[in-house]
Recover the amino acids of this structure.
């Protein structure tokens, strides 16, 4: 299994486990699990975020369809898990496990609104960021949703460190194209251009690409279209179904985490589906996407 590590720290199997928390108030550790059906008409995501300084965890699970259906479980007051990554709250229980480091992960959710039992099997390798302790893993996804068989694709990631939801806006996107290529790109609005994290994984061969850029058209606060500029793979992204979350800081400041199941189309005619997020903290329009 190929590991492409752009950071200055070695990325090893131990990083699939929890990390010792930092002392900063905004230090967090999170796990994402994105998934899309093979036909692109349904998809969802799960996020578990641990906030030791706040003494609680955030748990999100969302499922959307191209027909406009959306179900979700959102809990910003979950108790911090102890040894494992199991959390529970009003009306739900959830568990997350890496069953084989960098190869397989498993998530479960049981609630009245939504039930998930999904396995994420690595398809192409793992990609470590250079900007922050974080890695992304493109995956094949199988299991059940609401007791019905599910087969599709997606991406999971794991990060740890300080994350300020209320001062920095960003775009993050991942997808699988119809020829089997996985793509991923991210850029934050920090007042300067940087070597942004980006990869293409064709036929299982994941490789970092230089020069990633992105531009978005908005209708008010609603993203309408983004153009992702991968070298040799310019891709247009259009939202199919939104599953946003509102994030409120301990001081009462609100940010809008706009996330959507999206359709992707490259300049050479390939198509696909995945997830894109356009994070919108207060004053986000003062920055250039």
């Amino acid at each position: 299994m190929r590991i492409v590590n752009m950071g200055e720290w070695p990325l090893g199997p131990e990083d699939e486990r929890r990390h010792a928390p930092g002392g900063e108030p905004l230090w967090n550790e999170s796990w994402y699990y994105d998934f899309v059906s093979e036909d692109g008409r349904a998809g969802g995501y799960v996020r578990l975020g641990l906030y030791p300084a706040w003494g609680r965890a955030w748990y999100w699970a969302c499922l959307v369809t191209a027909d406009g259906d959306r179900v979700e479980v959102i809990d910003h007051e979950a108790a911090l898990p102890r040894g494992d990554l199991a959390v529970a709250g009003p009306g739900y229980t959830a568990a997350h496990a890496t069953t084989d480091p960098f190869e397989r992960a498993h998530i479960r959710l049981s609630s009245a609104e939504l039930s998930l039992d999904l396995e994420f099997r690595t398809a192409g390798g793992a990609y470590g960021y250079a900007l922050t302790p974080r890695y992304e893993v493109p995956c094949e996804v199988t299991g059940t949703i609401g007791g019905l068989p599910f087969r599709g694709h997606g991406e999971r990631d794991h990060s740890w460190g300080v994350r300020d939801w209320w001062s920095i806006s960003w775009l993050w996107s991942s997808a699988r194209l119809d020829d089997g290529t996985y793509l991923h790109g991210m850029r934050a609005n920090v007042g300067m251009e940087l070597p942004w994290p980006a990869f293409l994984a064709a036929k299982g061969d994941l490789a970092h690409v230089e020069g990633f850029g992105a531009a978005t058209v908005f209708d008010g606060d609603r993203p309408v279209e983004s153009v992702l500029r991968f070298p040799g793979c310019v891709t247009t992204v259009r939202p199919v179904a939104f599953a946003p979350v509102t994030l409120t800081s301990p001081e009462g400041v609100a940010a809008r985490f706009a996330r959507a199941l999206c359709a992707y189309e490259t300049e050479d005619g390939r198509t696909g589906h995945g997830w894109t997020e356009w994070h919108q903290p207060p004053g986000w329009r003062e920055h250039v996407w």
The mean pLDDT is 95. The chain has no helices and 22 strands. The chain has one domain: 29-286.
